[in-house]
């Protein structure tokens, strides 16, 4: 058997990002808060980088009184000063007022249920079993495993043998905790648990009967059939329906969601748009300080090096200083390019969606994709995608994510955007007759009358995007 060696040549074209490009891409993807943290971290790590000094206004050293001090000086003594002058929230409408929020941490759903059980007369062994049951609840409060599976898990993992009847008893104790509906097996069981905790009344009993015995028919919204089977009039059925719809299908989701958490959640926009007539003014919200090279690193760094030092130490020190200076210069330049890129991308969006910024009407959003912005700016599609990801713009009508302005054409021969179609569908459904809601075919015909020639499956796709159920589920009594 003979062996042979063969030498072949092939050409391959590969595109790789340099370390500098990789760093720029990472900075471009950051939002305002993230870039502030990155600048703060770079200032701590690199001694060659510092915040540029803001030029002082001539005469600042001679005058240090605030506007509030000047107003208080109008009174002869403190007794004449009105009480509202001493209030903490004495601010004008243009001032930023930060309200201190004391948030009481309720903990997770499991912690809340365990705390409630600890306040009862449950013994240590049953409490351990109850904790294991609570550990099998999802974030909405539903039990994720069957009782047989929990029984096997307790025997195998915890070494606890417990009869099924006793396990059901402990599960019942967990189901009796707050919020009502927790530890349910499914949606129907969750609604039943909540209804049973309510005070008895005719409507409550009717709602409980519907959920316990006619839940499938109720879910399909077959009200005529339901009224006939229960032998009730439509008014009582309507009241029972309203009661059932008022129940919480996700009881576990309300734990830990306090008013303080809502106040703590906020979005800091990266851009600000002001509208004056037909003129749209764009500004970049920049909380990043101006950076510069520290004065000691501007030269070659000889002042840091002892003349008596060894030659090797001289080289190491000089290399360190040069490296830090180059890193600082590179970071300053990358920040400048990032700000310039963001501003150009947002300027192109404002230009393309000028009508929307003037009217704040979604129907005025024109079809726009990444390629359209690329044609305006000359940037690559990946650059535009990263520049718009996680960024927000503040307008007189509210705060919008930049991805909000991108929407495709409905069809190749249509000038309408998907946002325009979504707004039209939302409007038609909002005005529909609740007794006879519009089907997707009916919506398609009404949209065609408005000049939107789209297929029924496209209507269904946009309706689902709006989280609007099908017609039979929108039917009311």
UniProtKB/TrEMBL annotation:
GO cellular component terms, A-Z: DNA-directed RNA polymerase complex
Keywords attached to this entry: DNA-binding, DNA-directed RNA polymerase, Nucleotidyltransferase, Sigma factor, Transcription, Transcription regulation, Transferase
The keyword Metal-binding is assigned to this record: no
Domain RNA polymerase sigma factor 54 core-binding stretches: 103-296
A biological process term (GO) from this entry: DNA-templated transcription initiation
One Pfam family here: Sigma54_CBD
Coiled coil: none
UniProt domain RNA polymerase sigma factor 54 DNA-binding: residue ranges: 319-475
GO molecular function, one term: DNA-binding transcription activator activity
Family from the record: Belongs to the sigma-54 factor family.
Protein name: RNA polymerase factor sigma-54
Species of the source: Duncaniella dubosii
Gene name as annotated: rpoN
């Amino acid at each position: 058997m003979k062996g042979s060696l063969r030498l072949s040549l092939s050409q391959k074209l590969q595109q790789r990002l340099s370390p500098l490009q990789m760093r720029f891409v990472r900075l471009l993807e950051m939002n305002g808060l993230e870039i502030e943290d990155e600048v703060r971290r770079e200032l701590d790590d690199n001694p060659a980088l510092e915040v540029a000094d803001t030029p002082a206004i001539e005469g600042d050293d001679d005058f240090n009184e605030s506007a509030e001090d000047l107003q208080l000086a109008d009174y002869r003594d403190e007794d004449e000063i009105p009480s509202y002058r001493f209030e903490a929230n004495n601010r004008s409408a243009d001032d930023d007022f930060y309200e201190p929020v004391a948030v009481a941490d309720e903990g997770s759903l499991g912690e809340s249920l365990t705390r409630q059980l600890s306040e009862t007369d449950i013994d240590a062994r049953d409490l351990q079993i109850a904790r294991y049951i609570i550990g099998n609840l999802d974030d909405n409060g539903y039990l994720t495993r069957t009782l047989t599976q929990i029984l096997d898990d307790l025997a195998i993992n915890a070494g606890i043998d417990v009869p099924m009847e006793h396990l059901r008893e402990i599960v019942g104790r967990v189901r009796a905790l707050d919020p009502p509906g927790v530890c349910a097996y499914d949606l129907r069981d969750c609604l039943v648990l909540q209804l049973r905790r309510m005070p008895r009344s005719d409507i409550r009993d009717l709602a409980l009967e519907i959920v316990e015995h006619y839940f499938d028919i109720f879910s399909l919204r077959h009200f005529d059939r339901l009224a006939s089977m229960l032998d009730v009039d439509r008014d009582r059925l309507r009241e029972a329906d309203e009661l059932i719809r008022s129940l919480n299908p996700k009881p576990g989701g309300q734990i830990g969601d306090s008013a303080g958490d809502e106040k703590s959640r906020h979005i800091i926009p990266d851009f600000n748009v002001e509208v004056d007539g037909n003129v749209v003014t764009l500004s970049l919200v920049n909380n990043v300080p101006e950076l510069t090279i520290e004065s000691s690193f501007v030269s070659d760094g000889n002042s840091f090096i002892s003349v008596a030092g060894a030659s090797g130490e001289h080289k190491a020190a000089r290399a360190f200083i040069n490296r830090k200076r180059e890193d600082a210069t590179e970071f300053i330049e990358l920040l400048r390019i990032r700000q310039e890129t963001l501003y150009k991308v947002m300027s192109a969006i404002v230009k393309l969606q000028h009508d929307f910024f003037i009217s704040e009407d979604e129907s005025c959003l024109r079809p726009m994709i990444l390629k359209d912005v690329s044609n305006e700016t000359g940037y690559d599609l990946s650059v535009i995608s990263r520049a718009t990801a996680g960024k927000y713009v503040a307008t007189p009508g509210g705060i919008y994510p930049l991805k909000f302005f991108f929407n495709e054409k409905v069809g190749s021969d249509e000038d309408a955007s998907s946002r325009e179609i979504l707004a039209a569908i939302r409007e038609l459904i909002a005005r529909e007759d609740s007794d006879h809601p519009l089907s997707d075919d009916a919506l398609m015909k009404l949209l065609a009358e408005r000049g939107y020639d789209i297929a029924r499956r496209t209507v269904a796709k946009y309706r689902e995007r709006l989280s609007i159920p099908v017609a039979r589920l929108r039917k009311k009594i």
